[in-house]
Amino acid sequence: MNIRPFLLTLTLLCSALCSVAQQSLPLYPEGQIPFAKPGAEIPKLTVYAPAKANGKAVIVCSGGSYVGRANDVEGIPACKKLIAAGITAFLLDYRVPDPAKMDHKELVPLTDAQRAIQYVRENAAKYHIDPQQLGIMGFSAGGHLVSTVGAHFNKTELSNPKNTSLRPNFLVLIYPVISFADSLTHQTSRERLIGPDITPERITYYSNELQVTDDTPPTYITHGMDDSGVKVANSLYFAAALKQHHVPVELFLYAKGEHGYGAYNKAAQTQWIDDCINWILKDRWKQN
Q: Which residues contact 207 (CB under 8 A, 6 or more apart)?
């Protein structure tokens, strides 16, 4: 038997199935991108659909210092791991702050993330999702974006005629930038989002450990204690603030986990993403 044609057919079939599982779509209807200048980047969502959806969904925001998005190391591997567990994943290509391409650059990433939540909730039936089981995940500067979503969900510049809730049901933060305080922040991320006019008021507003309330969503956090890119204190301060407001929080720390380990920490045997998926699937985010 010549096995080559069989293998070729199998490869083509697998490719076809994978292509069906992923669908990219523009985040906004044509001509309605908030704050965009002519020729600006078009933000998009890429849908990763599991073979059998369990009703849970996560929007994924890669990091990149608010300069770019590290999808290959962070977002895409995380999406693939989520769908293997039956969780529908949405990779968000949010716009990074750039005054040449947008007005009010500090508002743009948050508005894009809120639009992703709005879109997923309003189209939940299409993707076999429970709109009350929607989380959002962020790495590094994407973690700052996600913590901003969790802290400022009641404030938006987004058109929201259906009054769709922009509060995610849970947050997942991976080595996140949380604070813009001088002693804690990641300088590039802060400069890109709110620079060059870095005022004390802006620092406080975007230091999300200072913005936690009783309504901040339950949060899963992972960070390396030896992270030399973003200090682990960012995560510790946010976790402490959540505890003070009686918000469920799960803190998964690595003794060794340099910045940017993505979906898999090669320096560790136990992987945060497996523990995190268990936290999502078993509804531990609902527990006090």
A: 178, 179, 180, 181, 184, 185
SS3 of residue 92 by DSSP: strand
For residue 75, the number of C-alpha atoms closer than 13 Å in the C-beta half-sphere is 26
Closest by CA position to 204, among listed 187, 189, 176, 182: 182
Say whether 103 sits in a helix, a strand or coil: coil
Dihedral in degrees, nearest 10, Cα atoms 201, 202, 204, 210: 140
Q: Classify the phi-psi angles of 66: left when phi > 0, otherwise alpha if psi is within -120 to 50, otherwise beta.
A: left
**pLDDT-based confidence at residue 9 (cuts at 50, 70, 90):** very low
For the 46-286 domain, the top CATH level (class) is: alpha beta
Is-above-0.90 flag for pTM? yes
The span from the CA of 205 to the CA of 200, in Å, is 9
Q: How many CB atoms lie within 10 A of CB 80?
A: 15
Cα 134 from Cα 138, distance rounded (Å): 14
In the DSSP assignment, the letter for residue 27 is S
- Per-residue CA distances from 115 to 10, 92, 97, 274 (Å): 38, 10, 16, 28
CA 5, 7, 8, 10 torsion: positive or negative?
A: positive
Report, as an integer, the average pLDDT of 223-233: 96
190-223: pLDDT as tens digits: 999 999 999 999 999 999 999 999 999 999 999 9
pLDDT band at 13 (very low <50, low <70, confident <90, very high): very low
